[in-house]
Amino acid sequence: GPGPGAGACVSVKVFDSKLIRQQREEIRYVAVQASHIMCQLDEVRRALAAAGQQWNSATQQVRDKMTKLEEVLRDHGSAGKPQEELLVLLACGAASPGLHHFLCSTLCEEG
């Protein structure tokens, strides 16, 4: 009958070291290039992560400013949305009292 370890799979690979020796410079070159590429990919991952964090921070600041603008407009009796008020300002150069107040006070704050 089968002995101990029956059913175990054993794999043996034999390489011709002469062939490897003949190609050692090419193998070394490929290994070095692969190492450089892996390092560059790590740097790209870190840069993308940092850019993503900065993007999230910037978009949050824009959302916060738009919320503040909406509050200021409401406090000044304007029924317009912030986007509409900004579009009128861009198109005509005219700012409603609420938008004028927001631009003069809120955007002049430090930060």
TrEMBL record:
InterPro entries: APC4, APC4_long_dom. One of its GO terms (biological process) is cell division. Pfam families: ANAPC4. The keyword Cell cycle applies. One of its GO terms (cellular component) is anaphase-promoting complex. Residues 14-111 form the Anaphase-promoting complex subunit 4 long domain. Keywords: Cell cycle, Cell division, Mitosis, Ubl conjugation pathway. It comes from the Eukaryota. This is Anaphase-promoting complex subunit 4. It comes from Pyramimonas obovata.
